[in-house]
Write a structure and sequence with these properties.
mainly alpha; 2 domains
Amino acid sequence: MKRRRMLLLGVAGLLCAAAVLAIGILLVGRFDETERRVMATTLLLAGYGVVSLPSVVLLDQGRRRPLAEGGIGLAAVAAALAIVSVWGPSGSDAVGKSVGTATVFALAAAQAAGLAARLREDSPPLVHRLFAASCVTAVIAAATAVTLIWMQPSASVYARLLGALVVLDLLLVALQPVSAALQSGPPHGVRHRHT
């Protein structure tokens, strides 16, 4: 519980710092290079803090620790690379591609962690299968996106494949709560009337 509290306070602190700095710079700033970099840094930290939140919740539940720790680690690596891209020399293509790669996999881990945090042991088998399928689809979509980032193939086949995988992934994610609700029966306390 203590670790969860610290992580949640860290995310809340990042969000508050980002908001205060952004408001201050917007109201009284001159928008010079340093202020733009400070604002970008705080917004990036807040954004990646939110991306890590599903993994923090999963870690607090004490379930699927490798997934939770991996999700937090990926968000931290993506945040660090993004900050390097803000403060480092401009025009580094490799750093930008590395930020994209880490971010794509951090988002896939966040999706899996968020779904795993909602998944219960007594969930219907179909929901467990949909969860596994959505995790696989998210990883394949992330790998396809990374291929697009690094290889930049000229054919639109990869872009179409990525779009199709994202749509399939969204479908698998959306079907999980629907399937759980359909298979759980009527809510407790609801009685069917006999006519």
